[in-house]
Amino acid sequence: MDKKKNSFPDNLPEGTISELMQKQNNVQPSVIVIGSGISGLAAARNLSEASFKVTVLESRDRIGGRIHTDYSFGCPVDMGASWLHGVSDENPLAPIIRRLGLTLYRTSGDDSILYDHDLESYGLFDMHGNKIPPQLVTKVGDAFKRILEETEKIRDETANDMSVLQGISIVLDRNPELRQEGMAYEVLQWYLCRMEAWFAVDANLISLKCWDQDECLSGGHGLMVQGYEPVIRTIAKDLDIRLNHRVTKVVRTSNNKVKLRPTSIKTHELSVREFLKKQTKH
């Protein structure tokens, strides 16, 4: 068989199948990112650098999510996230912080994760201003560690997820000796509140299966002296960010499309494989 009859010539005229296929390959994929917290901005930055057309929709009148630096006192004060956890080159923010020349104030070392802090450096007080004995704080802290260890058994037993609070409740039902009374109960609540602070959400909304799936970097913890805003501004630079655009509905249609219905702007439509939905936490 003559191969020439079954192959495309190299010099097809304009408007032929070859040109149409080339134009289709050159179409820039479009992505919408919901939320301009640091995760949404990082996703948008990476996609933009990968030649995606990215639009970020943000319901607030500012970017950053729970990272928000206030200057009303004449100096930067972070109202939300303010520490860098893992002061080392392993941290993905290290290149930005180094390039901007930002200052870090180291507050604790590698042994300070979640609830493991130096009790000699501070004291706990009750509602009447009385100092709580450090021995009680340490004892309840050990009980809290044991409770969290027992929740691992709970999540291994069930296929469905549940909240950390529900898991703790089951543990206390099974292990009544871990229950705390009086001031010890108040201290236990303090440990739980510290855990909630790491996730910026109440324990009844923290996933039992996923709460400890983070990666602890070396280098301890450092306070961002100039605040986090310079980092946020750098990540967001030149991105197409639409403030005051709250997404009210996400609809998947039968023709493999996703429609977002935000306020203030027209409905956006893009293919499922080009759709990135970033849920805000924090």
UniProtKB/TrEMBL annotation:
GO molecular function list: polyamine oxidase activity
Key words of the record: Oxidoreductase
Cofactor list: FAD
Amine oxidase domain mapped to chain residues: 38-261
Pathway assignment: Amine and polyamine degradation; spermine degradation
Statement: the UniProt record of this protein carries the keyword Transmembrane: no
Gene3D superfamilies for this protein: 3.90.660.10, FAD/NAD(P)-binding domain
Biological process per Gene Ontology, one example term: polyamine catabolic process
Annotated residues for binding of FAD: S39, V247
One Pfam family linked to the record: Amino_oxidase
UniProt-listed InterPro entries: Amino_oxidase, FAD/NAD-bd_sf, Flavin_amine_oxidase, Flavin_monoamine_oxidase
Entry similarity comment: Belongs to the flavin monoamine oxidase family.
PANTHER family: FLAVIN MONOAMINE OXIDASE, POLYAMINE OXIDASE 4-RELATED
The protein's name in its UniProt record: Putative polyamine oxidase
Source taxonomy: Eukaryota, Viridiplantae, Streptophyta, Embryophyta, Tracheophyta
